[in-house]
Design a protein that fits this description.
Layout (H helix, E strand, L loop, with lengths): L3 E4 L3 H13 L3 E7 L6 H5 L2 E6 L10 H11 L3 E3 L9 H9 L3 E2 L4 H8 L1 H10 L7 E2 L6 H11 L3 E9 L2 E6 L5 H16 L4 E5 L4 E10 L5 E13 L2 E7 L6 H17 L4 E10 L9 E7 L6 H8 L3 H9 L16 E8 L1 E2 L5 E2 L2 E2 L2 E3 L6 E5 L6 E2 L6 E9 L2 H13 L2 E3 L5 H9 L1 H5 L6 H9 L11 H15 L25 E6 L2 E6 L12 E5 L2 E6 L2 E7 L13 E3 L4 E6 L6 E2 L4 E7 L2 E6 L4 E6 L6 E2 L4 E7 L3
Parallel strand pairs: 1-2, 1-4, 2-3, 4-5
Antiparallel strand pairs: 6-9, 7-8, 7-9, 10-11, 10-13, 11-12, 12-15, 13-14, 15-22, 16-17, 18-21, 19-23, 20-22, 24-25, 24-28, 26-27, 27-28, 29-36, 30-32, 30-35, 31-34, 32-33, 34-36
Helix pairs in contact: 4-5, 12-13
């Protein structure tokens, strides 16, 4: 058995591997770039080695540095995780040539499945059903156009070396083919240094079904059933589940047997995934499920398979890499319940899903026992612009699909991330959608419904009574006053009668609007609107997965509600220009300052004619979201 392991990765997957290695008594070595010097995976490992500057091309993608780190620390093996160098056959061979154990498939297997056109030919020869299309060597525009015409539109152009949705174009009609081909080749060349393409028949009701396979050095190959990854946004998976909705036993047997044949065709060792595209226009049928590609590594969505089978796939990887056989035979594997995973990304759905970076000033994970959280960050960690924006995954496991959906929705409501924006509200909306809950969706679902799935930018005021009550409790506790005599600056007493407690109203402000909320001291926990997180002079509220920052108005604090002309930062950023000074008269729409955030400039303007009575922003200063940067007092009529 391996005794010391280097993880050639970062973030969530590095933490995931470290956890299993520790349980097995295996010492771990982390590697890190400048940006990750204080990262969770670095502090979780037994040792850590610095491998270069923040850009991945100068650190995590430099194989020689990683191998040197393994040699330096006496690590016997290297686990690549996923992404980065995990499917790089040259790096795998270099690890082996250095006398180290490669925790992954043979380089020859990676190579065989690395190019989509060659892989499809190999699969066809192995009796694995393949999507109708063209994978020929003649890459002339004329030949490709002729083949596309023969296949019939719509067709899909795919880069042979592609991945992650890059180098992929759907072509609806013949007259659009050449322009789409040129665009696809240009992107493929830039992304993969290879502009060759293949053609596939476009599946009109596509579902993404994949099968987890596992092989060892003793000739054994098993499958661990299927996953459904149809909920995608721009070819990127969003929510995954296992098993697949609507999969009958006969179809499951055929698709899983085909996946095992595919793995055996390349003499596969370790964890791998065979990805299929299903034409679900008449439900899932074995004669309408076609091979797409093989991922020769552990997948991001592997936890859902672990949850329904009770298998630790990382443990299996380490045992097989050490020369042991697969721990279980095919007949010993079975499906238990239903599992569902949501990918939590640091991105802002309201702004086109732009990545959101910065310090995680508040990071609270679900407290539920029926939800697993695999994360690579913690409170006060920084989300860097250098890497993938996924900060973690929430995984629910229940007795059936309905239970798994509800558990995952509840987990999203219990997750607090601030001030970095996340897609948690968008995930909740997807899970709550009736079409998704039916299980009858295709990969086009998000694209067709994205605007309806975006969470509201304003909170539901009718469901904030418990938040106001909590704010008063906190204020009374801090002031030492009795619960029904809160400090005046945090509320307005709107009326009372003898022998009755006064109404308790808290004034909140959010994204440029001020509003009053009456406290409800009898409100019970609400699965959709339940989580509130008090912070200094404010509350973070999770409504249906969406985080709202509610600052509490405080007289004399210098902060005014937006209704009084408060100019608040719409996101974390840097002030690059201030055009006014305190005392200046301004007109409605006049630019007051410019904030630079996410590599974009945002002009903040006066809401009405008036005077700048307060100015806290300064050129060059860094500001957090919802910070009051200036106050404009309206002009007297």
């Amino acid at each position: 058995m391996i005794t010391k392991l280097l993880i050639a990765n970062r973030g969530e997957i590095a933490c995931r591997i470290i956890r299993t290695a520790r349980e097995m008594g295996i010492a771990t070595v982390a590697v890190y770039s400048d940006a990750d010097a204080k990262a969770l995976h670095v502090r979780s490992a037994d040792e850590a080695v610095h491998i270069g500057p923040s850009p991945a091309a100068e650190s995590y993608l430099v194989g020689d540095k990683i191998i040197a780190a393994a040699k330096q620390t006496g690590a016997e093996a290297i686990h690549p995780g996923y992404g980065f160098l995990s499917e790089n056959a040259g790096f795998a061979q270099a690890v082996i040539d250095a006398g180290l154990i490669w925790v992954g498939p043979k380089p020859s297997s990676i190579e065989a499945m690395g190019l989509k056109d060659a892989a499809k030919k190999l699969m066809r020869a192995a009796g694995v059903p393949v999507t109708p299309g063209y994978e020929g060597e003649d890459q002339s525009v004329e030949r490709l156009k002729s083949e596309a015409d023969a296949i019939g539109y719509p067709v899909l152009i795919k880069a042979v070396a592609g991945g992650g949705g890059k180098g992929m174009r759907k072509v609806e009609k013949a007259e659009d083919f050449e322009a789409s081909l040129e665009s696809c080749r240009r992107e493929a060349k830039a992304s993969f240094s290879n502009d060759e393409v293949l053609l596939e028949k476009w599946i009109t009701s596509p579902r993404h079904i994949e099968v987890q396979v596992f092989g060892d050095s003793h000739g054994n190959v098993v499958h661990l059933f299927e996953r459904d990854c149809s909920l995608q946004r721009r070819h990127q998976k969003v929510i995954e589940e296992a098993p697949a909705p609507g999969m009958d036993e006969a179809t499951r047997a055929e698709i899983c047997a085909a996946a095992v044949r595919a793995a055996k065709a390349v003499d596969y060792e370790g964890a791998g995934t065979i990805e299929f595209i299903a034409d679900a226009s008449e439900g899932l049928r074995a004669d309408r499920i076609f091979f797409m590609e093989m991922n020769t590594r552990l997948q991001v969505e592997h936890p859902v398979t672990e949850e329904i089978t009770g298998v630790d796939l990382v443990e299996w990887q380490l045992r097989v890499a050490s020369g042991e056989p697969i721990p279980l035979k095919q007949e010993e594997l079975s499906i238990d319940g239903w599992a569902m995973e949501a990918r939590l990304y640091a991105e802002d759905p309201a702004r086109g899903f732009l990545p959101s970076t910065g310090r995680l000033e508040h990071f609270e994970l679900p407290w539920r026992t029926d939800c697993r959280a695999d994360v690579g960050v913690e409170q006060n960690a920084s989300v860097s612009p250098f890497y993938d924006p996924m900060i973690g995954k929430l995984i629910a496991h229940g007795p059936n699909r309905e239970a798994a959906i509800e558990q995952l929705k509840n987990a999203l409501v219990e997750t607090i991330v601030w001030p970095v924006k996340t897609n948690s509200g968008f995930l909740w909306s997807c899970l709550d959608d009736a079409e998704f809950q039916s299980g009858d969706i295709t990969t086009a679902f998000i694209g067709e419904n994205e605007s309806e799935l975006l969470p509201p930018e304003q909170p539901d005021l009718s469901r904030l009574g418990h938040v106001a009550a909590n704010a008063i409790h906190v204020a009374d506790h801090e002031s030492g006053q009795e619960i029904f005599t809160p400090p005046v600056e945090m509320e307005k007493i709107a009326g009372f009668r003898l022998n009755s407690a006064p109404r308790r109203i808290v004034t909140f402000q959010h994204s440029g609007a001020a509003f009053d909320v009456e406290a409800d001291f009898n409100a019970s926990f609400d699965d959709e609107f339940g989580e509130a997180f008090p912070i200094e002079h404010a509350t973070l509220v999770n409504q249906r997965g969406m985080i709202y920052f509610l600052s509490q108005r405080s007289d004399g604090s210098g902060q005014a509600s937006a209704g009084d002309g408060a100019i608040v930062a719409p996101m974390p950023g840097k002030v690059i220009a201030v055009d006014v000074a305190e005392g200046d008269a301004v007109t409605a729409g006049q630019r007051l300052m410019v904030l630079e955030a996410m590599k974009m400039e945002h002009a903040l303007t006066a809401p009405f004619d008036g005077t700048v009575t307060e100015l806290s922003a300064a050129t060059g200063g860094q500001v957090q979201v919802e910070a009051v940067l200036a106050v404009v007092e309206p002009k007297e009529e």
